[in-house]
Amino acid sequence: MEDLRVVANPTLVREHALEKLRGAIASGLYRPGTRLVERELCEALGVSRTSVREALRQLQSEGLIEAGPRRAIIVSVLSPDDAYDIYTLREMVETRAIRQFVAHGDPKALKRLQTIYKAIEKHAAKGDLPALAEMSGAFYEEILEGSRSKVVGETGRQLLKRVSYLRLASMSAPQRVEAGLGEWRAIVDAVCAGDADAAAKALGQHIRTARDTIVARLRDEAQGGTLRRA
């Protein structure tokens, strides 16, 4: 919990509080169904209730939290069907983005994507799943940024935020990291070759595999009753 504490210039406190809370949800510190109490968040972050409330409003607009029973605020719980739909939309948006990424042929953007992939390989070799999940998110965001489309970028980032906390769970599945490395490698190779069709195909397959993995996990958890509201 000490990692949540915000240390920043007062003008940046609200933005940092939002980033800290979003990261806490993505990392699983606040799991789906967990109740978020304003007073406790103020103490953990070291910020005012106003800053916390503004951060919570933004998180609610992103679909990461929702109103629960008796007006409680809880971390959103995605159903298997919701997750399936979000990943399917991700495939549509991100394959469009990577086609535009390749079409622009920006060497600096390509270099950044390669650098991120090397970091993914390093974290995978160490078995550092939280860092791997964070870098994989950066990988997708680099593709969205490289599309140079405001609409594609904003839509894609919104979808990524909705499933950020599922990324770590997906990577925990047996052999998922090993398979994922091959999929990321195929994406980078296709982009380096300037082959938009191959890049879109590789990225689409990667997202579908992740989708199927996480949907199966959510269904198992729902049937086992492991996702309980705190």
TrEMBL record:
| SMART domains associated with the record | FCD, HTH_GNTR
Tell me yes or no: is Cell inner membrane among this UniProt entry's keywords.
no
Per UniProt, the keywords (alphabetical) are: DNA-binding, Transcription, Transcription regulation
Q: Which source organism?
A: Sphingomonas turrisvirgatae
Name the coiled-coil region(s): none
What SUPFAM superfamilies does this protein's entry cite?
A: GntR ligand-binding domain-like, Winged helix' DNA-binding domain
Under the heading Gene3D superfamilies, the entry gives: GntR ligand-binding domain-like (1.20.120.530), Winged helix-like DNA-binding domain superfamily/Winged helix DNA-binding domain (1.10.10.10)
Where the record annotates domain HTH gntR-type, the positions are 11-78
Q: Which PANTHER family match?
A: TRANSCRIPTIONAL REGULATOR, GNTR FAMILY, UXU OPERON TRANSCRIPTIONAL REGULATOR
Q: Which GO terms describe its molecular function?
A: DNA-binding transcription factor activity; sequence-specific DNA binding
Its recorded name reads: GntR family transcriptional regulator
Pfam families per record:
FCD (PF07729), GntR (PF00392)
The keyword DNA damage belongs to this UniProt entry's keyword annotation: no
Matches recorded under PROSITE patterns = HTH_GNTR (PS50949)
